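Obj: model holo form, ligand = CR6.
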Amino acid sequence: SIPEHMREAWRKFSPRGFTTKEEFEAEAVKHIETTLARSLFNCDELAAYSGTALAFRDRLIIDWNKTQQRQTFADQKRIYYLSLEFLMGRALDNAMLNVGLKNVAKEGLADLGFRIEDIIEQEHDAALGNGGLGRLAACFLDSMATLNYAAWGYGLRYRYGIFKQEIQDGYQVEIPDYWLDFNPWEFPRHDVTVDVQFYGWVNKYTDDQGKQIVSWQDGEIVTATAYDVPVPGYGTPTVNNLRLWSSKASSGEFDFAKFNSGEYESAVADEQRAETISAVLYPNDNLERGKELRLKQQYFWCAASLHDIVRRFKKSQRKWSEFPDQVAIQLNDTHPTLAIVELQRILVDMEGLEWDAAWDIVTRTFGYTNHTVLPEALEKWSVPLIQNLLPRHLQLIYEINLYFLQSVERRFPKDRDLLGRVSIIEESQPKMVRMAFLAIVGSHKVNGVAELHSDLIKTTIFKDFVKVYGPDKFTNVTNGITPRRWLHQANPRLSELIASKLGNYEFLKDLTLLNKLEPYVDDKDFKKEWAEIKYANKVRLAQHIQKTKGYSVNPKALFDIQVKRIHEYKRQQLNIFGVIHRYMAIKAMSPDERKKLVPRVSVFGGKAAPGYWMAKTIIHLINKVGEVVNKDPDVGDLLKVVFLEDYNVSKAEIIIPASDISEHISTAGTEASGTSNMKFVLNGGLIIGTLDGANIEITREIGEQNIFLFGNLSEDVEDLRHHHFYGDYQMNPELLKVFDFIKKGTFGDEGAFGALISGIAEHGDYYLVSDDFNSYCQTQDLIDEAYKDQDSWVSKSITSVARMGFFTSDRCINEYADGIWNIEPLQVKEENEVRSRT
Ligand code: CR6
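Output (holo structure tokens):
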């Protein structure tokens, strides 16, 4: 660093960041005219966005630098959140709100000739995730920064995020999402690199001093380069870091010999192969496929992150035994499990620690979050695959397993079966490494993401580990969402109304303050405003539908929304069969009956994994039903069916505030938590749901009278499936009528939907669609009735919002900090104090 006596100029000129409208304008114009080489003669909205984003980026970076200095200086424990997915959405609006300068920007942009809404719209979503798991990681980053925790996210810088979805002739078509054309929110750190090794072989020998040396040799080196993304906290100067790794052929590796001898092509091919590692996000939600490239991604990212963390730790010159006092690493699902093995490798092979001392450090460092009990989502990697790609890691995994099984055997000497059941290696053909088991063995805490889910993992998939470790290793942290994005940003008018009653915006930092709204539940004026805001949000969505779909929907109708990944367990098929049932009922109604009916708009949105054929069939059916129903003059406004294309974070910000009812209707026991349920209720929508995931806790918080629950309980699912399996069940007759209606060709070629129907009617109905159909339809009727009483509906809506405080991700992060990471927030010191000290 610069010697003390030469720091004067630095102190004098280090930028302070804009705070006034004029200062903002000056920054934006400077960027437009210099960085972008544009002028007032050719500044379009995209250029204005770019200038604005760069102005805010600069401002964030000033605080980012100070935060990093503060954290380095404090030298306390840090959290490292390892996630293969970060579904960040747009950054500009969030940055403006979190630093409290949105109004400044709004006025400044107006001076420059632009509307802030149009400018915000220009930004491409950062869509480096599939669904809930990735968005949860993004909410956690927001909370960790807001609460002043010293925390880093580590992920991959995919060149292609989740694909864009188009609907052509009712079918989903995937379009690549190349999002990096212009991304002002990332800082390439070409000086921060890690060389990551693959393939090769393991050399074990004894050196001159008689010491056993293990060295992993040859193979291929790929370089990881860091790209840093600032993560601003709300109402605090803390700006944390999300570090994303990008892969490149190692510069040493680019084969100059080949190149010079004229083998241009193969020299370049090596380079491309290396770059492929961080090229695409795997588009599966809750499904693992065992592809080698995916394993490469996992190791590449884990190794780069671990070496980065270790490098930072080593600067502190502490003893290795203090590593877990400085470092907490959270594994977001099993995707980063190799980090456990990599840390053990670093400590034993590279740093020369004894096995036991190293393993103690490892297990004290890691925590593992499980996000699913679905068997198809539990990661397993074949032993031959790991053997080839990561030969040393396979040896370490076997050793970890050996010591683990020995300890189990000592404690349960008579239980031979137990050993087989808890072994990290599955004795199949080929043998498989069970990543969840490795994650449990290598962590000090394992948590599920909602109460029911955390109970289920203890009684089903990880039952034997509860026996081995006792129950204390397993814990629950119910998911949460950030109220900054999901209330304040998505629903500014509601946020403002709440603030007007509560006196300030403190509730955005302490969401339990929402309970101060309860006294207004019967306040007429307040209710009126509340209802007006909901209506305005519905109008906004109706305009979006008009713009994107080309037809109008009536904003006075009941908006019934299901947006999330398309998956059989989430049961969009139950919803669309219910819609068809409703359509059939309307067609059979007399004009008088029709008059009494509440008009409905059924909105669907969500992507299907490109290889998930049944999910794509469901999308197809929804679209075909829409084509028929929306054109049926006999039905008019009574029913509309909308499939919104390309559901993503920024669309969620428009859709969620506009719901009257949203659907969270998974087969009980299958949805680990769900998080959109929380977003909808926080925005004053009521929900229909099964007793699954976080729905159960939402019910407990907001009260049974404010939620529409239906369907079988998770404890009965196994029995029901058993009966199905033996053909011992009766299909619901109303559902059969729906099937007949489809089979008649009402929605086009009935063959297209044959498998969807027969999966339910003939092949066991694994997701219990028929079992729950009756109770689903009845509950929908109750919703219609309840909606007619708008006054009581609005009261339910307000009461629910008032009781949603528990579901902030701030609460979640504090629970992780307390119960798993053992870490305190960092006190944010006065600016000058920090400056003079660093
Ligand atoms: N698909 C769960 O299915 C949960 C999130 C975040 C999921 C969902 O219920 O809310 O994680 N699981 O915890 C996985 O991705 C494995 C999800 O998003």
